[in-house]
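Allow me, if you will, to draw on your knowledge of protein folds for a short while. A protein sequence and the structure tokens that stand for its backbone fold form the material at issue. I would ask you to consider whether the tokens describe a fold that such a sequence might reasonably adopt. Thank you for your consideration; the sequence and its tokens are set out here:
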Amino acid sequence: MSELNYEIVEHDGGWAYKVGGVFSETFPSHDHALAAARDAAERQSLAGETDGISYQDAEGKWHEEVADGTDRPETHVVDAGR
């Protein structure tokens, strides 16, 4: 099982959460960003439907595979902002 960390950080004059190197939208307060991160982390761990997916890799090659809707990551909210 993979893991995703939602880290609360100061960003662009406000607060955001960051997953990997990607920032969320900017929120006006730390508490708003924390609530949004908790909500996103909870939704990320919900099972979905098994379905076929197509994606292009960094070299431009296309791949097709079946994504198991029950294979969800373990999520954590890391509050580095306080």
User: Anything to note?
Assistant: Helices lie at 30-44. The longest helix spans residues 30-44. The chain has one domain: 3-78. DSSP finds one helix and six strands in the chain.
